[in-house]
């Protein structure tokens, strides 16, 4: 999913009016990356740096998760959204890009500066974004009566201790009338939060939509962690802020989509980059509560041709069943 041109223009205008020199923004972008690596809070970094250095990547990760939601549940079209830990409204932009008929958005954050920024950027967006309700609050203790068809917490649980995740997720789940989407950095710690959330949600009867194709215990073990990658283009400002030399970056992310109704998809999720060699392609799949290897031989021409289209993060469908 591409960053909407209206959002790009709104960010560019914001940066233009922010008289900070590129050099100080570069220092801020470096501080931002260091803060995230150390597990620090967004409040410690300036919002212009967030718009340049992080928003494009968090947007791409949320967009990838929403594409998977749309593919698995094509009939789902939310009328309302709760964007919990909204920051500048990144997830709300992605949801309105996916479902333009979305009617009502609630932005919740404990940082008033982020809520103001989300409101300012939202003026350039579709009517639901421009009219979004802003709520100051704690993601771990949602205000009474907040609910929506779709709740998203993107890169927001990261700022809570692991011990508080289940309690926070209980509130988010209670607020979700149909669907809950969690997106976290694709690090072992990010996955640990996703796994803790999944364990709790399964106990409350939630149904996995993606990436898990099953509702059994998570089979990921040892030093492994379930995560995916999304590639995104870097703008000139983004490259400058990060002193980058290539015009793209790969954002690792972990995610979880849980529904109130329906059944798990079944089949296998490709949980590592497929390995292509002369005899064929090897896939690592999460399938029915197990991590399994699947080999598709090059000599099985039709199967091989189909398998070549599958990548890390896709659902693996046995070619003969397509
Ligand atoms: C890394 S930013 C992510 C923003 C946005 N969701 C995105 O994907 O770009 C985390 C946001 O969560 C907010 N946040 C962190 N902990 C929170 C809490 N306990 N209650 C409410 N908001 C919180 C921060 O203020 C920040 O705006």
Q: Segments where pLDDT lies below 50 for 5+ residues?
A: none
CATH fold type of the largest domain: Rossmann fold
**DSSP helical segment count:** 11
Helix content: 25-40%
**What is the CATH class designation of the largest domain?**
Alpha Beta
In percent terms, what proportion of residues is strand?
15-25%
Q: Structural class given helices, strands, pairing?
A: alpha/beta
CA-based gyration radius: 20 Å
Total number of beta strands: 13
Q: Residue-averaged pLDDT, rounded?
A: 90
Overall 3D form: globular
Bound molecules: S-adenosylmethionine
The run of helices and strands is HHHHEHEHHEEHEHEEHEEEEEHE
What is the name of the CATH superfamily of the largest domain? Answer: Vaccinia Virus protein VP39
Distance between the termini: 25 Å
The main β sheet shows up as: 8 strands, mixed
**Which architecture of the largest domain does the CATH hierarchy give at level 2?**
3-Layer(aba) Sandwich
The figure for the number of domains is 2
């Amino acid at each position: 999913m591409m960053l909407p041109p209206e959002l790009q223009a709104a960010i560019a205008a914001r940066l233009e009016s922010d008289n900070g020199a590129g050099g100080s923004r570069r220092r801020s972008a470096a501080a931002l990356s260091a803060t995230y690596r150390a597990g620090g809070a967004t409040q410690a970094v300036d919002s212009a740096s967030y718009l340049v250095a992080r928003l494009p990547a968090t947007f791409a990760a949320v967009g990838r998760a929403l594409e998977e939601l749309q593919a698995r549940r094509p009939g789902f079209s939310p009328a309302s959204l709760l964007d919990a830990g909204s920051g500048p409204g990144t997830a709300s932009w992605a949801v309105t890009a996916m479902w333009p008929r979305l009617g009502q958005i609630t932005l919740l954050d404990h940082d008033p500066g982020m809520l103001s920024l989300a409101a300012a950027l939202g003026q350039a967006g579709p009517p639901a974004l421009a009219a979004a309700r802003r709520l100051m609050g704690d993601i771990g203790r949602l205000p009474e009566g907040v609910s929506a068809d779709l709740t998203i917490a993107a890169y927001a649980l990261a700022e809570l201790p692991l011990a508080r995740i289940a309690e926070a997720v209980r509130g988010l789940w209670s607020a979700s009338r149909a669907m809950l989407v969690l997106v976290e950095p694709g690090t072992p710690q990010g996955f640990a939060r996703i796994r803790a959330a999944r364990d709790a949600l399964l106990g409350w009867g939630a149904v996995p939509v993606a990436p898990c194709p099953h509702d059994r215990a998570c089979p990921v073990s040892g030093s492994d962690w379930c995560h995916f990658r999304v590639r995104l283009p870097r703008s000139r400002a983004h490259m400058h802020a990060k002193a980058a030399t290539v015009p793209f970056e790969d954002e690792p992310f972990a995610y979880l989509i849980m529904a109130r109704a329906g059944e798990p998809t079944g089949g296998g999720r490709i949980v590592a980059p497929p390995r292509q060699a002369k005899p064929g392609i090897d896939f690592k799949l999460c399938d029915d509560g197990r991590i399994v290897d699947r080999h598709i031989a090059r000599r099985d021409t039709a199967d091989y041709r189909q398998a070549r289209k599958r990548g890390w993060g896709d659902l693996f469908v046995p070619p003969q069943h397509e």
